[in-house]
Amino acid sequence: MDFLKKLFNIPSKEDKQIQNQEVNLSLDDLFVHNFVNKGGKFLYCTSEADVKTNFANILTENNWKSVQLLNTKLKSVINQKEVTIDSKLNSEAPIFTTCEHLIADKGDVLFSSNQLKSTRLKEFTNNFIVYATTSQLVKDTGQGLTGIKTKYVNNLPTNISSIKNYNTQNVDDNFLNYGNNNSKNLYLLLFEDL
Q1: What does the pLDDT look like over 63-115, one tens digit per residue?
Q2: Which whole-number Å values give the CA distances from 31 to 38, 101, 129, 155, 167, in the listed order?
Q3: InterPro entries from the entry (predicted)?
Q4: What does the pLDDT look like over 158-177, one tens digit per residue?
Q5: Is residue 99 part of a domain?
Q6: Does a structural domain hold residue 175?
Q7: Would strands 185-191 and 41-45 be described as parallel, antiparallel, or unpaired?
Q8: Of 113, 75, 68, nearest to 93 (Cα)?
Q9: CATH code for the domain of 97
């Protein structure tokens, strides 16, 4: 009987059970898996030197000579002899910023007005470089919003939104997303801080 199953490529009961088992990934593995499947570019950094090197490599790979800096704390990452900082919104220069949280179950990057000010995501250039830390990983959007509420108790930010797709060529036919295309070409510099 086993011979016939193998001959006709009929899966055994054990094979079906193995395929149906749920895989439990750690929070960071789950985020990376979902992020990369959506087309995001992920660079893991274990030191400040890694962050600077990877940032420089991203700029070189794309021939970018300037960036739009949305968080002045990130100025230390930029070698200003090689890259200029644009102070106004420019359709060509990539955005370099931080984020609020990384959403593991969806692979999304969550922002608020603390990063984006009052500008909507779709008004920015298509190219983003985001600096985040492993301590910003959360399981789902609910935990991300709770984290924002806890962190900014007396001064809740506005303009909370997320980049959900990292392929700018993707056209979403979902009528619920009509006019709200937040697709960006996104590089993530993830710094290990735990």
Answers
A1: 999 999 988 889 989 888 888 888 777 668 999 999 999 999 999 999 999 99
A2: 11, 11, 17, 28, 17
A3: FTHF_cligase-like_sf, NagB/RpiA_transferase-like
A4: 889 998 888 877 555 554 44
A5: yes
A6: no
A7: parallel
A8: 68
A9: 3.40.50.10420
Using alpha carbons, list the distances in angstroms from residue 85 to 31, 58, 126, 173.
30, 15, 17, 36
For residue 72, count CB atoms less than 10 angstroms from its CB and return exposed for 0-12, middle for 13-18, buried for 19 or more: exposed
- Distance between CA atoms of residues 51 and 191, nearest Å: 7
- Which of helix, strand or coil describes residue 95? strand
Residue 100 placed within a domain: yes
Look up the domain containing 151 and give its range.
Answer: 25-169+181-191
pTM of this prediction? 0.81
DSSP-H helix ranges across the chain: 2-7, 13-20, 27-37, 48-62, 113-116, 141-151
For residue 142, what are its two tokens?
């609910």
Residue 93 domain flag: yes
Count CA atoms closer than 13 A to 68's CA, side-chain side: 16
Residue type, 123: E
